[in-house]
Write the structure tokens for this entry.
Amino acid sequence: GYQPCDPQIICNRVNHVRTCLEELEELAAKRRKELEDSRQLWTFFQEMEEAEAWIREKEKILAAKTCGRDLSSVLTLTSKHKTMLGELGNRRALLHQTMKKGEKILAKKSFSSVGVQEKMREVCLRWKKLEEVTGLHQQRLEDALNFFQFSAETDDLVAWLQDAYRIVSSDDFGHDDYSSQALLRKHRAVVDEVEKHRAAVLSLRKQLALLAPGHRQGVDVQIRVVEVEQLYGEVAEVAVLRTQWLQDALAVYRMFSEVHACEVWVDEKEQWLEKMEVPEELDEVEVVQHRFESLDQEMNSVMGRILDVNQVVQQLVDGGHPSSDEVRSCQDHLNSRWNRVVELVESKKSQLSSVLKIQNFLLEC
């Protein structure tokens, strides 16, 4: 009782199945697109949430951060801040990519654009605020760094000036010509260093003016600058005085040395004159007379040295040298001995002159 099917029915059913399959494929493709769009949307929101969480974390860190209490802590915070700036740059690139995703979602118009736009606007505002806070914190760190560097340099300058003051206010002026010269050479080197530090002291006011208002207007820092200027003035003033004192000490020791040399000569001639007896023979008298002629030349030379000594003594006394009494006593002693030698020479010359007159008279007779 088999009855063959009409071929048209077969064709119709095949066409129907094919049509259903095509509709199913279209629905599947549409569903895939909707799911992909949904995945992109929720990926966008997830990345935005991560960005917001990262922003909130950095906002808390920046809100709790101080600018340090000294140079070391400021340098540490500055290093950490540079690390955070690197993280900020990386996060900025990621946020830029997420924003592009949001723009693509808005362009497709697959979902309501209100939530996406609101989220993008909110995150952009928070990001802008974070960058502003980061910039302000960086500026505060730079201001604090400049202030503590200024304070450290000022402290170093004060320490150097205090050491220099101890050196230039020393009461060691040497014990002889050689030691005084050595001290004077060292002191001149210190004076050169003091002069080199003048520029650093004069620049303190300019450096202070470049500090942030909150730092430069502090009473302590202004007082510190005034103290440094006053200390430098004292060092420079005492350095000038010590130069004069060392020069005076050197002049005194040189004067003592010159006095000693003159007195050695005076001792020698005084002993010779006291022991010398005026001869009665003409030949011997002429020999002694030639000796006195040589003695006159020596006395002229020594007289010049003694005059120089007297001039130096007068300068020291007029300058109020602390050893004025000792110097004056030394001068008086030398002058008295010199006068004694002059008297002896004149006495011996007078005796020689008398002998010569007698000898000449006898020759004429």
Q: What stands out?
A: The chain has two domains: 7-144, 177-364. Residues 122 and 244 are 77 Å apart (CA to CA). The mean pLDDT is 86. Residues 177-364 form a domain with the Methane Monooxygenase Hydroxylase; Chain G, domain 1 fold (CATH 1.20.58.60).
